[in-house]
Design a protein that fits this description.
The complex is a heterodimer. By secondary structure, chain A is an alpha/beta fold. Chain A contains 14 helices and 15 strands. The longest helix of chain A has 19 residues. Classes of the chains: A alpha/beta, B alpha/beta. The structure holds zinc ion (ZN) (4 copies). Chain A: Pfam families: C1_4, Ssl1.
């Protein structure tokens, strides 16, 4: 059993040194040294601990934030299978409340967030137990169908050993039918250290490589050589969980669309339908669930009734979206650049530009000696406004707009946005789309 | 799409934070005033007076209700209230207002009224902004971003989840196409945080497509007032936008119609039902093309499945 190596460099585009250091410092929960956590905290001159606690918290918040904002293309349209190990190893209680319960609740959060960030993508679920793999849901664009399948107690009994090969083959056989403009991905949550495979798994791995399927694995117990090999061969990521929070981090790293290699510079034009909504006084049956509904959408091609979009028409298989769904993905194309930390000698501002909270002033700088001091200000290099740590996190994780750039006298907003991604010369196109 | 916003539970005794975004583009307010029949001109000044009455009404509803006011101006968006001031400054402004305004007025109303009015005055007197070339639109995306950051801060500092926020936009300017992406980003994060965006649009004929989407997606109210109706501006504000999120569930408020988001192709700007979407940049076209005109990537024929091009 080897110690989980922190994510290896060649597969991760957006690695920053700080994250890596933090990962190396902390090991398994039970390996952690007995830490006298109160030694780290020191009182300030008023006898208050608040400031030094805040300081520690800020460093943690920022750790997760630094993202890759370079202008790489990302595969916006994704097809993903989530494979969940339902072997007896999942009943272990080293993650609380148990590996299985935690996996199921994180899987639910993962699915919601996945569809929020990738609205025109598709996801299906496969479970593996007793040496076989079983498909719970096929690829679909509906988060609720997937979550309901996971909530069904009948689907989540544990039994025997998982089968790595069977589940990968099952996922692959469904993924090869997806059109080539979308990415093909597998995310595997693996609790067991063993696998029950019917044949040569290396052959299956070569098939996955041939079909451009990217496999990422999150291990719950220890690093397994074959898992590492699969991820390396298929250009996915492999991580082993240290504790509950790290589990979530590893899962949620999969949510932003993956970068597309430069070689794939060609695009495809995908046919999509923009359905019109209908409201009727008397209920009718929807084509997707055969349930009576009174409002919904009609497919733009075959006029069948659908209850919600985005989805694929169950009758004619046309992808049905609305323009706001497409707009939801635009922030992947135009990310906000990382803010830089402002050193004390240029900390002239008194309050955060966005939320108006006041910054610590130079006179309040006194901090415990064993902590490096931070001015609490973060600077946008485009508009040179200063923001607090909370706004920094919020801007990059939620809004995806720099409030400073949008709120200050920017006569050339257009040129500014154009710089974000040199590829998008006709940026205005987007903006006109909803004006007609 | 509504699964997230329903997860926020509102209670009767919640405190309400109202973030009011006022479009202060003088150009467009002048247009509104000019269109009106002589004698009953509705100027920005009158609107402001009615808005202050509305703010006071909001604060009077509950002792712990809060308000923030942001101006979406030509070329800049700015907080009008609250603004961080040094201690002496606040004292001085109190001294000023004691003489000028009614001393019978409730202290809190007066502080807010004075600050909003004086900050707005300062905004109009700012010479630098007068040279801004784009005089037609206002910085709505910036104002929305500021509002969301402020709400994020207030929500974070309130650990028991007692404060429920909402945004009200008073808009008079037409949509600025350059702000489409940033406004949409704001809308989606508001939806995720469960913050309804209410919109009051004062315009003779045009609806604001962006803001209509904002209120539709976030579960807010959209109300368009024609210029004649806007004489009863305060009345509409009170009846439509004053009820808090708890009370709204029991009310039948105007402006709850379904909005259709038709898509228009980038090439001819015509509305389409079925279109072709570029898999790299999500541009919409009404026909197959050789090259995507937005991201300049070559389009491979959808029929031939050339696996050599795919390297994922
Ligand atoms: Zn159809
Ligand atoms: Zn801030
Ligand atoms: Zn900026
Ligand atoms: Zn394109």
């Amino acid at each position: 059993m080897s110690k989980p190596s922190s994510k290896s460099k060649e597969f991760f585009i957006d690695i920053d040194d700080e994250t890596q250091n933090v990962n190396q410092q902390s090991g398994y929960v039970w390996e952690e040294e007995y830490k006298r956590s109160w030694d780290v905290l020191q009182e300030d001159e008023d006898g208050s601990l608040k400031r030094s606690i805040d300081h520690l918290q800020n460093r943690l918040k920022r750790k997760r934030l630094l993202r890759d904002t370079s202008t790489i293309r990302r595969g916006i349209i994704r097809n993903m299978f989530l494979i969940i190990d339902l072997s007896e190893a999942m009943m272990e209680k080293d993650l609380r409340p148990s590996r299985l319960d935690l996996t199921l609740s994180y899987a639910e959060q993962f699915i919601l967030e996945f569809f929020d960030q990738n609205p025109i993508s598709q996801l299906g679920i496969i479970v593996s137990k007793g040496g076989v793999a079983e498909r719970l849901t096929g690829l679909s664009g509906n988060p609720m169908d997937n979550i309901i399948a996971l909530k069904n107690k009948k689907n989540i009994d544990v039994d025997g050993e998982p089968s790595l090969q069977n589940s990968l083959e099952l996922a692959r056989s469904s993924l090869i039918h997806t059109p080539t403009h979308g990415s093909r991905e597998i995310l595997l949550i693996m609790g067991s250290l063993t696998s029950c495979d019917p044949g040569d798994i290396y052959e299956s791995i070569e098939d996955l490589v041939k079909d451009n399927v990217r496999v990422s694995i999150v291990g719950l117990s220890a690093e397994v050589q074959i898992c590492k090999y699969i991820c390396k061969r298929t250009k996915g990521t492999y991580g082993v969980v240290l504790n509950e929070a790290h589990f979530k981090d590893l899962l949620f790293e999969i949510i932003p669309p993956p970068p597309v290699s430069v070689a794939q510079s060609n695009s495809k034009l995908v046919m999509m339908g923009f359905p019109s909504s209908v409201n009727q006084s008397s209920p009718y049956l929807c084509a997707c669930h055969n349930k009576p509904v009174t409002s919904g959408y009609t497919c733009a091609r075959c006029n069948s009734n659908i209850c919600d979009i985005p989805t694929e028409c169950p009758i004619c298989e046309l992808t049905l979206v609305s323009s706001p769904h497409l707009a939801r993905s635009y922030h992947h194309l135009f990310p906000v650049e990382n803010y830089t930390e402002v050193p004390w000698n240029s900390a002239t501002t008194t309050h955060c530009f966005a939320c108006q909270i006041s910054f610590p002033s130079l006179s309040e700088r006194t901090l415990p000696k064993n902590l490096e001091t931070s001015s609490g200000r973060y600077n946008c290099q485009k508009c040179n406004q200063h923001f607090c740590i909370d706004c920094d996190v919020f801007v990059h994780e939620a809004i995806h707009n720099c409030p400073g750039c949008l709120a200050t006298s920017q006569n050339n907003l257009k040129s500014l946005m154009g710089q974000v991604n040199g590829n998008f010369e006709n940026y205005e196109n987007y903006e006109k789309m909803n004006l007609s | 799409m509504s699964s997230i916003k329903d997860s926020v539970t509102v209670n009767e005794d919640d405190a309400n934070l109202l973030v009011l975004i006022i479009d202060t583009n003088q150009m467009n307010w002048t247009k509104v005033a000019n269109k009106q029949a002589m004698g009953n001109c509705l100027t920005l000044q009158q609107i402001l007076r009615q808005l202050l009455a509305f703010i006071n009404a909001h604060l009077a509803l509950k002792h712990d209700n809060e308000v923030a006011v942001i101006a979406s101006h030509i070329g800049v968006s700015k907080f009008l209230y609250p603004i961080p001031t040094t201690r002496q400054k606040t004292r001085r402004s109190h001294g000023d207002s004691d003489q000028s305004s009614n001393s019978n007025m409730y202290q809190r109303f007066r502080v807010i009224d004075d600050q909003v009015t004086s900050n707005m005055k300062a905004l109009f007197e700012n010479e630098a902004l007068k040279s801004c070339p784009d005089k037609v639109s206002s910085m709505m995306a910036g104002a929305l971003s500021l509002a969301l950051c402020y709400i994020n801060r207030i929500t974070k500092s309130d650990e028991i989840g007692h404060i429920k926020s909402r945004i009200l936009i008073i808009s008079v300017s037409p949509d600025s196409p350059y702000q489409y992406i940033s406004i949409m980003n704001c809308i989606f994060s508001a939806q995720k945080l469960g913050i309804p965006i209410d919109v009051c649009k004062i315009s003779e004929s045009d609806n604001s497509v962006f803001l209509q989407q904002a209120s539709h997606i976030t579960g807010g109210r959209y109300l368009r007032l024609s210029i004649d109706q806007s004489r009863g501006f305060l009345h509409f504000l009170m009846k439509t936008f004053l009820p808090d999120r708890f009370v709204r569930r029991h009310l039948c408020l105007p402006g709850d119609e379904k909005v259709d988001f038709g898509a228009a192709c980038f090439c001819h700007k015509k509305t389409i039902n079925i279109g072709y979407v570029c898999s790299v940049c999500l541009s919409i076209y009404c026909q197959q093309l050789e090259e995507c005109s937005t991201c300049r990537s070559k389009v491979t024929n959808g029929v031939k499945r050339s696996k050599t091009n795919e390297s994922l």
